[in-house]
Amino acid sequence: MPSTDTNAIFDRARARIARPFGHFIAGTWEDQRNEPIEVLNPATAQPIGTIASGDTDDIDRAVAAARRAFENPSWAKMPAAERERMLLRLADLIERDGDEIAAIETLDNGMPFAASRGMAVGAAVSAVRYNAGWVRRMTGEEVPISVPGRWHGYTTHEPLGVAALIVPWNAPFGITCNKVSAALAAGCTIVLKPAELAPMSGLRLAELVQEAGFPDGCLNVVTGLGATAGAALVRHPGIDKISFTGSTATGQSILRGAAESLTRVSLELGGKSASVVFPDADLQRAIPAVAMGIFGNSGQVCAAGSRLFVHDTIFDRFITGLAEFGEKLVVGPGDQPGVTMGPLISAPQKARVLGYVEAGKAEGATLLMGGDAEGPGYFVKPTIFINAQPEMQIVREEIFGPVLSVMRFSNESLDEVVRRANDSIYGLSAYIWTQNLSTAHAMASGLRTGSVKVNGSGMEFALPFGGFKQSGLGRENGRAGVEAFTEKKSVMIGY
Length: 495
Ligand code: NAD
Fold this sequence. Notes:
495 residues, Aldehyde Dehydrogenase, Chain A, domain 1, Aldehyde Dehydrogenase, Chain A, domain 2, seven-stranded mixed β-sheet, 41% helix, binds nicotinamide-adenine-dinucleotide
């Protein structure tokens, strides 16, 4: 049983999200108008609350509120130091309520409580503090001018305006806080559309943004389905910027929707990232990191290392270590102590993942461990396929579940290893395990991915994050993440 303290935290979280949530527009919580959407706990398949089902009218009201807030001098002319202070206060409030927010995330998304505390809340606090630092550092540059005369030439970064933030369910709080704080740091105002499958922590964030003192309308939240609320937001002519994280298929449809108004778009999409383990790797570190790189958050991670290439000479040792690690993971409801792997988000997602397991077997890969798991919740055990081949569906397509496809390499050249790792329509991340500096540099330079990690994993907010190829467009994090919510202006003053 969980400790009394943990029970009390979960009781508070349940009570907090049990109310029927309406949209949050212009600083006011509205009543639900349409048929509400029921939100389920993926560990129990039981309802935890309801959210409003947003439509075009709701999006219109939210965009209008965000526009008024953008033009309101209390926001538009707010001194940079004041905006920074508010963001830092928001980070403090998230930290203050961290346990309860983590419990909400666990009930809503399914991730184990310890992961919610670290992945959801810890990452959110770091992201908000990091982005707050850019408010006073988003400087332009002075540019020497060559046309005749005396000129002062310089650039500025100006907020784009009203930003539509559309987020997925797999790490909702961290992703939402990162986008919201980058947009606010740039001076934009926001209409947020949380994922209908895990909207609760985004709604809690709205309360904290208000408490932090941001003027009404700076952050508006409209909940609802992607095909209605999301699509209406994307096509709204009052939106200046769309920042989307989700599947590649939805990203493509958003890009088409944005074409009409030439709305600026950033897309963080899917992945099929490779881990490559060389014979000189530190296996003590590599085995748990590679395992958690695919089993962490039940594999529902865009940057999951879902294709693994292991050198022949260490293959058996490595795979035995991975399987032992996988066997030790405790699959169950995230609010239970000792659970290290939660459920998948929904029944369709579980069916999809198990469909891939069947496809892998049918295509001739060897199922080393895993597959289905018992429970009313949507559990799937850590799953490893060996003898996977490059043309198999389990190697080519993003599964978004705890399914690892393992391949071997031997004495081929580094160029050939790079070619095999790059053999994907995606290009989000790659993980290299080697002690050899030349190998590390050759791989880092050859890989067509937005990020490469050598001898490690994890998120660093100071480094840009995003995809090559069909993994996305643009970058989050780093200076680029805040700049993405700005437009560059050039000024020439003759004197
Ligand atoms: P999804 O594309 O189904 O949904 C994401 C969001 O888009 C949800 O809020 C949804 O309601 C909304 N949406 C759906 N259809 C829409 C439409 N036509 N117009 C506007 N909005 C619409 O993705 P998902 O299943 O929630 O998330 C999983 C995907 O997200 C995976 O492919 C994963 O790789 C990707 N992801 C990427 C990153 C990254 O940073 N690259 C991070 C996390 C997840």
